[in-house]
């Protein structure tokens, strides 16, 4: 029983640390100038704001957001050339298909309820543009 309590406490501390890191770095990323990219491929800044609010960078690496998360796949690589519908589905139904080398079920499954539809579209546009889609 004592080991289970210690494990639960360790998980809680780790989750709190990841959440704090996501929120601590988010403000700086929102104010940072977008990377210099061709006009047609420049990620939408309002999509970056959604990225920051949802804490995506705490798990995912994504250059246009200056995110270096290591728990999930690097989205610039994984989403390159992917259509918007597929990106949207990977956010709202993450268990449907996992990126190579990652287990299904690692990403929270409640983003369809958590992210308002207009924000979801902004996030998808930001990801697609940033991944060269």
End-to-end Cα distance, whole Å, is: 50 Å
Helix content: 40-55%
Give the rounded overall mean pLDDT.
76
Strand order of the largest sheet: 1-2
Rg, rounded, reads 16 Å
Per DSSP E runs of 2 or more residues, the count of β-strands stands at 2
**Contiguous runs where pLDDT drops below 50 for at least 5 residues:** 1-41
Number of domains: 1
Secondary-structure element order, N to C: HHEEHHHH
Shape: globular
Instruction: Enumerate how many helices there are, as a single number.
Output: 6
Output the structural class: mainly alpha
Tell me about this structure.
The chain has one domain (2-130). Helix 2 crosses helix 6. A two-stranded antiparallel sheet has the order 1-2. The protein has 6 helices and 2 strands; from the N terminus they run ααββαααα. With 133 residues, it is mainly alpha-helical.
């Amino acid at each position: 029983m004592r080991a289970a309590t210690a494990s639960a406490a360790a998980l809680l501390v780790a989750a709190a640390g990841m959440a704090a890191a996501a929120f601590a770095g988010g403000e700086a990323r929102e104010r940072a100038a977008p990377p210099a990219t061709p006009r047609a491929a420049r990620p939408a800044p309002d999509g970056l704001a959604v990225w920051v609010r949802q804490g995506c960078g705490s798990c995912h690496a994504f250059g246009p957001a200056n995110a270096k998360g290591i728990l999930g796949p690097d989205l610039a690589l994984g989403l390159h050339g992917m259509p918007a519908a597929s990106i949207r589905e990977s956010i709202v139904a993450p268990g449907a298909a996992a990126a190579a080398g990652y287990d299904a079920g690692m990403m929270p499954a409640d983003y369809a309820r958590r992210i308002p539809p207009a924000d979801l579209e902004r996030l998808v546009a930001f990801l697609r543009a940033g991944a060269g889609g």
